[in-house]
Amino acid sequence: HTITGDGEEALIELLRENSHYTNTLEDNVSDFFRNPVADYTDYNFQDYVFHNGEVNLPIVGSKGCVRKCDFCDTGHHLGKFRVRSGIDIAKEMIELSERWQVNKFMFADNLVNGSITAFMDFIKIIAEYNQKNPEKKIKWNGPYICRPADQIPKDMYKLISLSGGEGLTIGAESGSNAVLKAMDKKTTVEALLTELENFRKHNITCVLLTFVGHWSETWEDFIEHCKMI
Question: H or E segment at 83?
Fold first, then answer.
């Protein structure tokens, strides 16, 4: 069998040997986060260490993406953007951390800050938890989209830092605003540099993803890309 999309409902149907199982995209995109939190009782944590030797637990806070960049197939595979509440995400993270004494989490989302409201609720709760429990602070990482400065809530960077956000992966894509516009990226190089400066001020580490060769890219755009880096 081949399963496309997020596969949660389709995989359950396949394991039940459902005779009317079909392999269509519509059947494989879940609109709700209905499945229970992972149990991990049969999980050998030491077999799943991250590159720095720390055990990481995966967590899913959203499906899909709020943007439709012209080079990306996320919308095709995962459908419209859906998000859990930030309160629900934080609750799962705290429960798993306290149950298994694991304090590092890796978001398996396409972006952690697709919903600013949910994201702010999540980082506020985890920041408060970390301040009350300094001996078992939670840390997390995941994909993060760059936004223009006028879309950034007050204290967001401070709360990301206090909540243990680190190693955020940002799809910067290009250092040319003309290419970013052609991609329908809905952000600018200036917005990226502003975010990076705020990350620096609050000791938030990140990884930038970029590429060259977009259909709209000229030699001059490539030079701008190099200057940005």
Answer: strand 82-83
